[in-house]
Design a protein that fits this description.
homodimer; alpha/beta; Chitobiase, domain 2; TIM Barrel; Alpha-d-glucuronidase, C-terminal Domain; 3 domains; 8-stranded parallel beta barrel; globular; Glyco_hydro_67_cat (chains A, B); Glyco_hydro_67_aGlcAse (chains A, B); hydrolase (chains A, B); Glyco_hydro_67_C (chains A, B)
Amino acid sequence: MGPVIGTAGGDERIGDEGYVVARHEGVTVVLADSATGLLYGLFHLVRLGEEAFGAARPAEHHRPAARLRMLDHWDNVDVHPVMGQVERGYAGGSIFWRDGALRDDLTRVRAYGRLLAACGVNAVTVNNVNVHATETLLLTDRLRDVAAIADRLRPYGVRVHLSVNFAAPVALGGTATADPLDEDVRAWWAAVTARVYEAIPDFGGYVVKADSEGQPGPHAYGRDHADGANLLAEALAPFGGVVHWRAFVYNHRQDWRDRSTDRARAAYDHFTPLDGRFRDNVILQVKHGPIDFQVREPVSPVIAAMPRTRVAVELQVTQEYTGQQRHVCYLAPMWSEVLGFRPWGPAGPGVAHVVAGDVADGAAGGGLVGVSNVGDDPYWTGHPLAQANLYAFGRLAWAPSSDPAAILDEWIGLTFPAAGGNDATGGDDGDGGRLREALHEIMDDSCGTYERYTVPLGVGFMVRPGHHYGPDVDGYEYTPWGTYHFADRDGVGVDRTRATGTGFTGQYPPPWSEVYESLARCPDELLLFFHHVPYGHVLHDGTTVIQHIYDTHFAGVEEVDRARLRWAELAGLVPDAPHARVRELFAEQLRCAEEWRDQVNAYFLRKSGVPDARGRRIP
Amino acid sequence: MGPVIGTAGGDERIGDEGYVVARHEGVTVVLADSATGLLYGLFHLVRLGEEAFGAARPAEHHRPAARLRMLDHWDNVDVHPVMGQVERGYAGGSIFWRDGALRDDLTRVRAYGRLLAACGVNAVTVNNVNVHATETLLLTDRLRDVAAIADRLRPYGVRVHLSVNFAAPVALGGTATADPLDEDVRAWWAAVTARVYEAIPDFGGYVVKADSEGQPGPHAYGRDHADGANLLAEALAPFGGVVHWRAFVYNHRQDWRDRSTDRARAAYDHFTPLDGRFRDNVILQVKHGPIDFQVREPVSPVIAAMPRTRVAVELQVTQEYTGQQRHVCYLAPMWSEVLGFRPWGPAGPGVAHVVAGDVADGAAGGGLVGVSNVGDDPYWTGHPLAQANLYAFGRLAWAPSSDPAAILDEWIGLTFPAAGGNDATGGDDGDGGRLREALHEIMDDSCGTYERYTVPLGVGFMVRPGHHYGPDVDGYEYTPWGTYHFADRDGVGVDRTRATGTGFTGQYPPPWSEVYESLARCPDELLLFFHHVPYGHVLHDGTTVIQHIYDTHFAGVEEVDRARLRWAELAGLVPDAPHARVRELFAEQLRCAEEWRDQVNAYFLRKSGVPDARGRRIP
């Protein structure tokens, strides 16, 4: 017998987006308070597969940990001369925009809404946070384009947000200033926002990158970020909208000669003095690490430092620094680590609690934000296996304590029919089992593999400037971007201690302030993020830093090659077209991983003069 | 009494472009066989100034050393998405083309013709050697545009040449192949070329970059460069046209791990086996150094290695690697050194003799080619002082043994009325003398200054990849471009010896093959081009390599600062607008020179660990 599905009817306990699933006496029941809740319940049944209709199940109540689970699209309306249609996009063009206009056919947008609902994502920003001239008009003249997208996504419980230009009132000719304390400016935003809500009654709100990397902001008027954010929040409040105000603010014209300035400190230094000044519909959107989406960073100290501010954590689903969707890199384990990090020590709440608003005496949570990895590519994400990151983002936003391997397992079952669906009884043997096992081998630790063949011990940014793909150890070393490793013939790493360095460790509460400060206690994987050490420094596993660099780089490439061969064996179990696509991408991943290995190893051999203890060839 | 000017009337001894100047009994006489010769004679009088009408002068016969004195414009018709309107251009847009079409107003082209005649240049290529789709059409559909330019330049004795796409017959749909031995292809080129000469009877010929950096060429058909060049030469021969075939051919997808491959060897290895196979209207156009217009390179060994081939030497007037017309860098001393270099030792002929066809048993000369530094900037060359390079190029092509300081002196007199013209009796005292003296101080050794604050001891390519401006010591170190310095903690430089290196030294005839091979005899300024040495290696002046790096970088910056202050003192002596432009550019030059100094010094300090003996601050 099929499932019985229906709304619970007025029972507030299930919650706006929650649902209850049960199977009792041969009947599967899904209850919810809202259509969206019901939809989520339906997708839950899909995940369960046959199992939903097997043995009796006690009632399970599901609801999302975080209210806001948002994907930001860095999509441009006009093709940007350098950044293209999608900034940092690796999956073709935008699903929304094409050559300066809304796409004629929005069928794909509707399908995207369904995909998002299946993952649990409930909000989307439809344009790049770097808001150029044409995109500024989305707020006014081109608002109907945004409304058209909202119409397609609404049935799937997904609300639309808009990235706005802080200087829009001036840029659009409405006022002479964009000063957030100016009455005309306030009136302009109020009027414009009211018109937005006329067109899109369930509009989500604004996303703003202000006073960052050249974008306009309140500083031009002698105002601060709270003034700026509150201006927009005031305009949105009557309609229930929110402002996502990005904390990605730093000096991108730093003097590389000056070792006292530390980009890692910037967000904390800028924002923590403002804690308590933001309106309650302002969400401070904080990147998960203090620098910029490197494969290994500590968790941003800002997350634990603003108890009276709603904080959202921003993750990068698009693989700017993690292989640009040409490399397999399943990011859920990294995100899971971030969400599980407990800034106040093991007894305190974790990052997931902060973003869920689940901290005693803390502000409401700001939820989780991901930078989307989706484009108009037939596989949505360029690399077919990168779809797993999209799925995992939504699932972790819904249930942050989920096990990344279990999420991957769900995704495999939903994606590859040959894996036998998600029925625990199916697919474990024979071809289905082989496929499932192989995909776990290829993907489970692929982020660890990526880390091994790229940048060692948390030091970050050894990529080619500009496009950020492939190695260039010194590429950012003598630039104004604040991203250095300070390697010399004796050692490598950034001294961020209070004792002798930039003092960044002091931005953490105990115990982490002490753990990171201590050379002995600092976790190996973050050693070079926090300390400058000689190449002979011995890690906790007994290896020296230099030997660790060599070993991990050889190991990382071997792992890629094993994964590549493992994938080749899956011919026939996976449809031909995606199999061929991934096979081609593996050839590129292997080439690039070898390039990383050889450049990083050659660089450090030339600098340190220490030969590989195992005598392998280093160019 | 004014000058008497007239043609010599049938007296062949003066030559096509030559002239005779004399002053006898109060009459100044200019004689020539042709209108162009007369024009050159007239400009000679302008250079002489008042002196032309003073004391009696015996008859002087002037004629150009080289028949072909050509400027190549790397101008695109369509604005290239990366390279812009003028590839490697630093003086605004093209004077010929704008936004995909010929400019409406060609007044500037006419003025350019006059400028070229005043310098002695008699040929111009009107489009980029990288020939894209629209530019391919200049040969056919857009030929009238080329003819319009030719009409403007003809009165000044300047012939127009065209860069062509070797695959043009296929690209333009004329034939199914571009195979140089195919009869249809030969017929296509013959027909197309005949039509070119119908439109432009004095058309100069074709310039071709083939099988180089991705451009098409004869290799695709299993043919060699001689086959390719002869194909075009055959089509041009009936009309007296020539093919400039560029020797800039190398593997730009080299593996940086492979130290046996040497880009410096490439042109010689590709072309010397073909010596004797080129038709006599083929000119092999060879860059002056074996790599690519670095501020210090040895002279290309190809120049001395092809006695049965007409060779032209290509210089880069546009300052791609020498400050991009934001830095003062008077290039004539470098060019003079190249032209004066005697490949077979002091008793043999020099490079100037080779390009003039003045070598016993050698081929006719191919002349001198410069890549133009001119654009639509009001000062023609962006940096007002870069005009001196344009002038010096023409003057050296006419008379290669000229003294660069004397050429500069001429240019100062012609350019700055305040310097008192070129009358030897004027301008030596007072303001005029001050201006002249200051400009010599600023410019005479500015190329040496540039070399000092940039790349040490001939090793080359420490620039930012892509745009090539400013330092990036490792920017090209791990790339496929074949441009490496191999610095490690112990030493730096490229071993190009026969004994232990790439064997490049063997491409020179004696004595240079021996001089460059020998660590003891190799000139210091080319040490790292030919040898990999420890940082402690002692140069001929007693300094170590590492200390030389520090010293020259500090000195170079100090020299820029002195030149900057010297220029500031000239306010009032130079018109305000160019004075302000140069003052602003000096601020940028100083900033950039300091960046070079600090990056290069920091890089080598970090690598070598050797402190500056004079204790100066290195970041």
